[in-house]
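S.,

Sequence below, as promised.
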Amino acid sequence: MAKLKVTVPENSLDIIGEIEIKAPLEKVFEAYIKEEVFVKWFCRGNQVKVNKFEGKNGGVWDI
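The prediction came back faster than expected:
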């Protein structure tokens, strides 16, 4: 099971999530750039509507 660490820096609107995933790097990278893989990995067990998915450096996710 992956462990999630969430931090909110003081005086910031940012929420930082760190997760350690036991999977090959290529599979994890694919999940960050392909919407259908992202939903399968990160939203498992939940029905979600993807409003925006930009699988690129600096991209935005809105689910």
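The longest strand covers residues 3-7.

Coffee later?
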